[in-house]
Write a structure and sequence with these properties.
With 159 residues, chain A is of the alpha+beta class. Chain A folds into 2 domains: 2-76, Ubiquitin-like (UB roll); 78-153, DNA polymerase, domain 1 (Orthogonal Bundle). Chain A has helices spanning 22-29, 74-77, 85-92, 102-115, 121-127, 139-155, and strands spanning 2-7, 10-15, 48-51, 54-57, 70-72. A 5-stranded mixed sheet of chain A has the order 2-1-5-3-4. In chain A, helix 3 (85-92) crosses helix 6. Chain A starts with a strand and ends with a helix. The model of chain A has no long low-confidence stretch (mean pLDDT 95). In chain B, strand 21 and strand 22 (470-473) form a beta hairpin. The mean pLDDT of chain B is 97. Chain B is built from 19 helices and 32 strands. Chain B is globular, with a radius of gyration of 27 Å. A 7-stranded mixed sheet of chain B has the order 3-7-1-15-12-13-14, sandwiched between helices. Chain B has a 5-stranded mixed sheet with strand order 9-19-18-17-10. In chain B, helix 9 runs parallel beside helix 18 (729-739). Chain B is of the alpha+beta class. Classes of the chains: A alpha+beta (159), B alpha+beta (765). Chains A and B meet through helix 3, helix 4, helix 5 and helix 6 of A and helix 1 and helix 17 of B. Bound molecules: FE2/S2 (inorganic) cluster (FES) (2 copies). The site of one FE2/S2 (inorganic) cluster (FES) has 12 residues of chain A, from loops.
Chain lengths: 159, 765
C-alpha cells in the first residue's frame, strides 16, 4: 500500500507493507538511522519520534499509522539550517555518552517542552522517565533540558 | 567546538557528541548494506543436554532461506574463548546453557529468518542441570566440561598474606557473615549486533559493536580456521558496552555466515530478549567473610571464601574472580589474610566482564563488614576506615606493596569535611511520617589495567596529513566512556593544536594498531601514554622539517603553534599545510607502543592465576548515600549521594563526572532492583519491563567530586576511573539502611520486600 505523510517537513509517499513497523520503515527504507531501537517493545524510548508534535514510540507503530501525519525524527529536529537548542544543550552539558538513547531522549524532551515550556527539574525527570539511558544517570540530561527550556523561552520574543 | 588548543584539566566537550545528538553517528547497528541478508541463531532452549538431531529440512526449503548451518559446518576449531577455548560457535554435541547456539540461518529478510528459525527441529536429550553454587560444588554433580581437570570448578585459587587465617585467633573481635549478590545484566541500549561480508579477495570484513576488535580478529581466526590477515574488524562507536561486548558475541557467527553469503552483506542483531538470554552477565556470587580486628579498630586478619557462578563457559570468569579476590579486603591495610575463591561452571548464562569486574561483589561484603565491625566496637564508621586506609608504603590485602598514588585517605577526609556528613544527624531527624532515614558510607577501590602476565599495551598511530591536519588512529573502542574525547584532548594539548585540526579514526584492524580492549579502566591511561609519545615524536619531526625550511639550526628556537611553526626570534612562520606538503608518506606518521608498568616483585601467592594478578595501580573512592525507606512499603529512595574519587589528575572534569555519575546509576540499579532471575537455567527477566534499570525518577542528583592527586606514570598524571564508582552504591545504601534502624541485609538487591522485613525486624548489628 502507498503511505503518504510529511517527514521532517517533506511530503513523501512510500509503497510499503502496511504491517511493517514504523521504526523499520524509517531506518531501512528511508535510511534515517537516527531513530534507534533498544527493545522493540515500548520499554526504552530509543525509537521515539514526534507524530503531530507528540512523542510516540516508532517500534509500536505500523507503517499505516504514519499515513497523513506530520512526522519528525531526530534528523529533522534542526530544520531550515538552524540549530535546535536541545541537541546543543546536550552537547554542552555532557548529556551524551554512548549517545544511543540521545535521539529519542531529545525528541522526548522536545515534546515535553512543547507541553511545559518551563519545567522544574522534577517535571523534567518525570517527562523523560519513559526514555531509558544506561550511561549517564540522567543528571546531565536534566541539566541540558533545563538549559534548553531557558534558551527557548529567551528566544521566544524574537521568533 | 573550541578555537583554542584544548587544555588539560579543563572541561573539554566531547567531539563525538554533536553527531550523536543529531542522529547522524553510524553505530554498528546502523549499517545495512545493499542486498542484505539477515542472520540469526536457533538457541538450545534447554540448559544442559546432548544434541540428538538438528533437522533443518523444513527451514531450508522455505523460500528466501539462503542457508542453515549447524555445528558440523563450522571449519576451524569451532571454539571461542579469551583464556580457555571452550565455547562452541555452533554446538556440535552438547549444549551447556539455554542460550547455546545450535543452528545459524541466513535469510532474505527478517520475517523469513524468524519463520525459518522456528521451523528448525532440535532434539536434545536433557542432562541434569547445575544451577546453583551448591550444585556446582557437589562432587556428584554432572560435569559441564568433561575434559576440564578441575571438574565444575573453572578455577580454584588462594591469596595469602602474612600469617593468613591463623591470625584471626589474635584478634579481639571477629565478625563472621555471608553475603549473596545476584546476576546483573549490562542492558546497554544497543544490543549485540554486527554486519559482515566476504570481499572479492576472500577477506571477511566485520563491522561490529565490540570492545575488543583486535581480539575479535584472533577469535574468528581461531574458531573458523581463517588466516588473521583474512579478517578485518571495524568497531564504530558503541551504544554502550560496560564489559558485555568484551568477547565474541556475534563475531564468529557473522563471519561464518559471510562465508556462505556469496559476497552479500549479512546482518545479525540480537533482540532484547536474545540479549538477556544469550549475552554475557555479571557473576552472581556468595561471599563468606571473617574479619578480625584489635579492640581499637585496627584490622588484623581476614579470611574469606568467595564463590562466583560463572555460567556455562569460561569466558573471563576466572579473571573476574581473581580481581574480586584481589580486592576482597577493601582499600585497607590488613596484615594477615587468606582469600579463597571458587569460580564455578553452571548451566546458567555465561558470566563475564562487567564494569567493576568482580569487585562490585566483594565491595558489598567488605564495606558491610566494616560497618558491622564499627558497630561492634562502638567506633565511628568513618574513623575506623580512616584508621585502616591504605597509604603508600603499605601492603594491601593481597600482599602487594603500594608504591604509587593511593588516595583513599584523601577521599575519606573529603567526606569528613563535607556538610552532608557533618550535618547528617539533622537530616536524619527530619524524616517525615512513616519514613526512616539513614546515612551510609562505602570506601572502594578498583585496579587499573590487565595486571601481571598479560601485557597491557597500546600502539598509538598519529598522522599529519599533506594538508597539515592531524589524524589520531585509535586502536581502542569507545563504548561511550569517552576515550576518543580524551585522545583528541591529549593530542590537541600535546601538539598545541585546535580541536578542529584533529580527526579521530575509530578502531579498524586494517587502519589502526592493536591497543587492547576497552576494559579494565585502561583505555585512556594506556593509549594516552602511547599517544603523548607519538605526539612528542611528531612535534620533533615537524620542528625538524621547519628547521630546514626556515634555516634555523636549533629545534629549541622554534615553536609549534596552532596551524604553524614559528621562529619567535625573527617572527618568521611556516604554516603546517605548507610544511606537511614537503613530507614524504613515511615521515607523516608517528607510531609509539606503550607498555604499562607492573608490580615488580609480586608476592608469592595467587599462583593459580595465570594472568591478571596482581595489579600496580588503583583508583579510589569514598561514597556517602543518604537514604530514605518507607516503613509501610519498604521502598528505598536515595535522596542524596556524594562520591569522592581519587583517580590521579582529572584531565576533563566533565567526562570524569559523566563516568562517576553513570557508574553510580548502574550501582544504584544493582543495589535496589536489578536481579536477573534464572530458573532452571532459563532467564525469566528477559525484557526491560521485567528487568528493571533505573529511570530518571529513580536516581538522585549525584555530587561527584575529586580528590587532588597525580599519578606519576599516567598520561598528564591521570588514572582510569570508568569502574571504581560502580563499587560504592550497594554497600553505601546497605549501610544507610542499617543506619536507619533496619536489620542488616546480606542479600542484594535491597528490594522493598527485603527492606520491609528488615525494618520490621529492627536494628541488629
Ligand atoms: S525500541 Fe521502541 S521503546 Fe524501545
Ligand atoms: S548515553 Fe548511553 S544510553 Fe544514554
Amino acid at each position: 500500500m502507498t503511505v503518504q505523510f510529511n517527514l521532517n517537513g517533506r511530503r513523501i509517499a512510500l509503497d510499503v507493507d502496511p504491517d511493517r513497523r514504523a521504526v523499520d520503515i524509517l531506518r531501512e527504507e528511508l535510511g534515517l538511522t537516527g531513530t534507534k531501537e533498544g527493545c522493540g517493545a515500548g520499554e526504552c524510548g530509543a525509537c521515539t519520534i514526534l507524530v503531530d508534535g507528540v512523542n510516540r514510540l516508532s517500534c509500536l507503530m505500523l507503517a499505516a499509522q504514519l499515513s497523513g501525519r506530520e512526522i519528525t525524527t531526530i534528523e529533522g529536529l534542526s530544520r531550515e539550517g538552524g540549530t535546535h537548542p536541545l541537541p546543543e544543550a546536550f552537547v554542552k552539558h555532557g548529556a551524551v555518552q554512548c549517545g544511543f538513547c540521545t535521539p529519542g531522549m531529545i525528541l522526548g524532551a522536545a515534546a515535553l517542552l512543547q507541553e511545559n515550556p518551563a519545567p522544574t527539574r522534577d517535571e523534567i525527570r518525570r517527562g523523560i522517565s519513559g526514555n531509558l539511558c544506561r550511561c549517564t544517570g540522567y543528571q546531565k540530561i536534566v541539566d541540558a533540558v533545563a538549559e534548553a527550556a531557558r534558551a527557548i523561552q529567551e528566544g521566544e520574543p524574537s521568533s | 567546538m573550541t578555537t583554542r588548543p584544548p587544555k588539560i584539566g579543563r572541561d573539554f566537550l566531547r567531539p563525538d557528541a554533536p553527531a550523536k545528538a543529531a542522529g547522524v553517528e553510524k553505530y554498528a547497528v546502523d549499517h545495512y548494506g545493499e542486498n542484505l541478508l539477515w542472520a540469526g541463531v536457533r538457541r538450545a532452549g534447554v540448559p544442559h543436554g546432548l544434541i540428538r538431531r538438528v533437522d533443518a529440512a523444513a527451514a531450508r526449503s522455505l523460500p528466501g532461506v539462503r542457508a542453515v548451518l549447524t555445528g558440523g559446518d563450522v571449519p576451524g576449531t569451532n571454539r571461542q574463548g579469551i583464556v580457555h577455548k571452550d565455547q562452541p560457535v555452533l554446538c556440535d554435541a552438547k549444549v551447556r546453557y539455554a542460550g547455546d547456539p545450535v543452528a545459524l540461518v541466513l535469510a532474505a529478510d527478517r520475517e523469513t529468518l524468524r519463520r525459518a528459525l522456528a521451523l528448525i527441529e532440535v532434539d536434545i536429550a536433557p542432562l541434569p542441570g547445575v544451577f546453583t553454587i551448591d550444585d556446582a560444588l557437589n562432587h556428584d554433580a554432572p560435569r559441564l566440561h568433561e575434559d576440564h581437570p578441575g571438574g565444575n570448578a573453572l578455577l580454584q585459587a588462594t591469596i595469602e598474606a602474612g600469617d593468613g587465617a591463623k591470625a584471626l585467633a589474635e584478634c579481639d573481635v571477629v565478625v563472621t557473615e555471608t553475603f549473596t549478590v545476584p546476576i546483573q545484566a549490562h542492558a546497554f541500549l544497543e544490543t549485540e549486533n554486527g554486519i559482515a561480508r566476504r570481499e572479492e579477495d576472500g577477506r571477511i570484513v566485520i563491522i561490529v559493536s565490540t570492545q575488543a576488535p583486535f581480539r575479535d580478529r584472533w577469535e574468528v581466526s581461531h574458531a573458523l580456521g581463517l588466516p588473521m590477515d583474512g579478517i578485518r574488524v571495524i568497531a564504530p562507536y558503541l551504544g554502550g558496552g560496560f564489559g558485555g561486548k568484551d568477547g565474541a558475541t556475534v563475531q564468529c557467527l557473522l563471519a561464518l555466515a559471510a562465508m556462505h553469503a556469496d559476497g552479500r552483506w549479512v546482518k545479525m542483531w540480537w533482540d532484547r530478549e536474545e540479549s538477556f538470554q544469550a549475552g554475557y552477565k555479571r557473576h552472581a556470587a556468595r561471599l563468606h567473610y571473617h574479619l578480625g580486628a584489635k579492640a581499637d579498630g585496627t584490622l588484623h586478619a581476614l579470611h574469606c571464601r568467595v564463590y562466583y557462578d560463572t555460567g556455562a563457559y569460561a569466558h573471563l570468569g576466572g579473571e573476574v574472580m581473581a580481581l574480586g579476590m584481589e580486592h576482597a579486603g577493601g582499600p585497607y591495610r590488613i596484615p594477615h589474610t587468606r582469600i579463597e575463591g571458587w569460580c564455578l561452571y553452571t548451566n546458567n548464562p555465561v558470566a563475564g566482564a562487567m564494569r567493576g569486574f568482580g569487585v562490585m561483589q566483594v565491595s558489598f561484603a567488605f564495606e558491610s563488614m566494616m560497618d558491622i565491625l564499627a558497630a561492634r566496637l562502638r567506633l565511628d564508621p568513618l574513623e575506623i576506615r580512616r584508621k585502616n586506609a591504605l597509604r603508600v608504603g603499605d601492603r594491601n590485602s593481597a600482599g602487594v606493596l603500594m608504591t604509587s598514588s593511593t588516595g583513599i585517605g584523601a577521599c575519606l577526609d573529603a567526606i569528613a569535611d563535607h556538610p552532608l556528613w557533618k550535618d547528617r544527624a539533622v537530616w536524619k531527624a527530619a524524616a517525615g511520617p512513616n519514613k526512616r532515614r539513614g546515612v551510609g558510607l562505602a570506601a572502594v577501590f578498583n585496579a587499573m589495567g590487565y595486571g601481571r602476565g598479560l601485557p597491557d599495551t597500546a600502539v598509538a598511530k598519529l598522522e599529519i596529513t599533506p594538508t597539515g591536519r592531524f589524524v589520531v588512529y585509535s586502536g581502542v573502542a569507545d563504548m561511550g566512556q569517552g576515550n576518543a574525547t580524551a585522545f583528541v584532548q591529549i593530542a590537541g594539548a600535546a601538539l598545541n593544536q585546535e580541536e578542529g585540526m584533529i580527526d579521530l579514526v575509530q578502531p579498524d584492524t586494517d587502519r589502526t594498531l592493536p591497543s587492547g580492549s576497552a576494559a579494565a579502566s585502561r583505555t585512556t591511561y594506556t593509549y594516552g601514554n602511547a599517544l603523548i609519545r607519538a605526539c612528542q615524536d611528531m612535534r620533533r619531526r615537524i620542528l625538524g622539517r621547519a628547521s630546514m625550511l626556515l634555516l634555523v639550526d636549533r629545534l629549541e628556537d622554534l615553536g609549534l603553534l596552532p596551524g604553524r611553526v614559528r621562529h619567535p626570534a625573527t617572527g618568521r612562520e611556516i604554516p603546517l599545510a605548507m610544511l606537511a606538503a614537503t613530507l614524504t608518506t613515511p615521515e607523516r606518521f608517528c607510531v609509539y607502543q606503550y607498555l604499562m608498568p607492573v608490580v615488580p616483585d609480586p608476592p608469592a601467592t595467587g599462583k593459580a592465576f595465570k594472568i591478571g594478578f596482581p595489579h600496580l595501580l588503583f583508583s579510589y573512592g569514598c561514597h556517602l548515600a543518604l537514604v530514605e525507606a518507607d516503613e509501610l512499603t519498604g521502598e528505598t529512595t536515595v535522596r542524596d549521594y556524594l562520591a569522592v574519587t581519587e583517580a590521579g589528575r582529572i584531565l576533563n572534569p566533565q567526562t570524569s563526572v559523566q563516568q562517576v555519575q553513570g557508574a553510580i546509576a548502574q550501582g544504584i540499579g544493582y543495589a535496589l532492583h536489578e536481579d536477573l532471575q534464572v530458573e532452571g537455567g532459563i532467564v525469566q527477566t528477559d525484557d526491560l519491563g521485567k528487568y528493571i534499570i533505573p529511570t530518571a525518577l529513580d536516581l538522585p542528583d549525584i555530587r561527584a567530586v575529586f580528590a587532588q592527586a597525580y599519578e606519576e606514570t599516567g598520561p598528564f598524571g591521570m588514572k582510569g576511573l570508568g569502574e571504581v564508582a560502580s563499587n560504592g552504591p550497594l554497600p553505601a545504601i546497605a549501610n544507610a539502611l542499617a543506619d536507619a534502624g533496619a536489620a542488616r541485609i546480606f542479600r542484594s538487591p535491597l528490594t522493598p520486600e527485603r527492606v520491609l522485613a528488615s525494618l520490621q525486624q529492627g536494628p541488629g548489628m
